[in-house]
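Could you help me review a protein record that somebody else here produced? What it holds is a sequence and that sequence's fold in token form. I have pasted the whole thing underneath without changing anything:
=====
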Amino acid sequence: MLRSRLVRVALAVGLLPAMSVDACELRDFMAMPLPANDRPAIALALELAYPGLRVDEAAGTVIVPDDQTLPLGRDTGRAPRDMLDDASIAEQFVQVYPLAFDLASRETPWFDPGRFRNDAFFRALWFSDEAQAARSLVTVQYPGRQARPRFAMTVRHCVAQQLEGAFTALSALDDPALERFFTRIGGSFNWRVIAATQRLSSHSFGIALDLNTELGGYWRWSGARAGAVGPYRNHYPEQLVATMERFGFIWGGKWHHFDGMHFEYRPEMILHARLVAQ
């Protein structure tokens, strides 16, 4: 098992306590082998995404690595707008994240795979307060020729190392056209609620980043109504999105309520989509 270069540097200069760093092995979630068994896709996706997490299907519970036990819940057929406010862990997977670079699915009202988040699960899996999240952060820099923005990301569950891997893969494409997506960035860690809600943003946990805000676009800025967003003029290229997905970051451009600059670490959504497609 290897630790990310950026994590080792942070440890060496005393920026992080050693106990806060997970042992990391870079993973490609689009290529990693999937187990062949009859367990539910949700259980497998969660356990593969977050080593140490366990799902007890018989008890209907999820046990996070520090032994907190949470109800798994189930799909009750609720309307998506209702799940957005208080999804169970199981309801986070009701809509399957589309792996193809096809934005037709997002035209369906309330098709937002990945936006349904269970707050208790996220706080248990990641952090319960801002100070705890802030102590886990390191800086990940995009290694561009001219654009070299920095992002504050958590080391928990190897998020920072996975982002470093994605950036390295993007840089290796040697495509100057990608540089513009790393200018005028929207940022990364920010303990806050989502606009017009009381729900914590995924940025609060150090697992999300926003690239170029001008090229990305955001549904609220368009003046659209919730559930009736309409067309989305995408500028982000497939190779950028697909590379980020390989390393576990889903893209907000595939949501009906589009957030085209936004990527967040949700490998369970990538794995679940692959499992149900088997």
User: Anything to note?
Assistant: Residues 224 and 230 are 8 Å apart (CA to CA). Confidence is low (pLDDT under 50) at residues 1-21.
